């Protein structure tokens, strides 16, 4: 299922509609898991796990059990995000959505990011975001300069009625990602070509990186 997204100027306006909540997640096939729909902290679907890549060499994030006092939620205002390539095999592509806390105080992530592919003009590119349950949501506290990651998995093989003699879907140049339980997106570069199967991307919850 796809959800059209307006041009970049409209992303902020949509944030009012896309207010996130921490519970009551719906199945991956419905709109709560598509594109920039509200990311929540509960997984409701399970697909083939995407193995995480080796931990980054940045300072480690810690979970709430060792982090001390509760922290504020991580927002797009304090996070810097990027998509890092991982393994590729037999038409499958793997990557990690990595976020860094650029703020001066710890912040907390718990759950899934929203994600919408965009072309060079900021127009939406077909995106069908599906949550996986491994790893599922857990509270991750990011000290300043620490990182968290979410696994991404998609196919580059044309599916259904997608063309095989040209790109299966329009190619994205950027992506908009909303941290869990937030409404304002980060803008990320996308250098991975078209995403086939209608823009289907499987995403895990954030974990300490």
From TrEMBL:
Pfam families: DUF4232 (PF14016). Residues 1-22 form the signal peptide. Residues 28-70 are annotated as: Disordered. PROSITE patterns: PROKAR_LIPOPROTEIN (PS51257). Residues 74-206 form the DUF4232 domain. It comes from the Bacteria. InterPro entries: DUF4232. It comes from Saccharothrix longispora. This is DUF4232 domain-containing protein. Keywords: Signal. The keyword Signal applies.
């Amino acid at each position: 299922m796809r959800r059209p997204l307006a041009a970049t100027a409209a992303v902020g306006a949509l944030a009012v509609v896309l207010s996130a909540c921490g519970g009551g997640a719906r199945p991956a096939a419905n709109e709560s898991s598509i594109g920039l729909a509200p990311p929540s902290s509960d997984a409701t679907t399970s697909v083939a796990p995407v193995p995480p890549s080796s931990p980054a060499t940045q300072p480690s994030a810690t979970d709430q059990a060792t982090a001390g006092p509760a922290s504020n939620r991580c927002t797009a205002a304090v996070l810097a995000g990027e998509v890092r390539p991982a393994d590729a095999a037999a038409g499958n592509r793997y990557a990690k959505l990595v976020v860094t806390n650029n703020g001066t105080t710890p912040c907390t992530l718990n759950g899934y990011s929203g994600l919408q592919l965009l072309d060079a003009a900021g127009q939406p590119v077909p995106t069908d975001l599906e949550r996986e349950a491994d790893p599922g949501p857990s509270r991750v506290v990011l000290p300043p300069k620490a990182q968290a990651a979410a696994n991404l998995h998609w196919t580059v093989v044309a599916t259904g009625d997608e063309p095989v003699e040209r790109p299966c879907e329009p190619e994205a140049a950027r992506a908009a990602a909303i941290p869990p339980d937030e409404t304002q997106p980060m803008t990320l570069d996308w250098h991975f070509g078209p995403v086939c199967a209608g823009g289907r991307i499987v995403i895990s919850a954030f974990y300490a990186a």
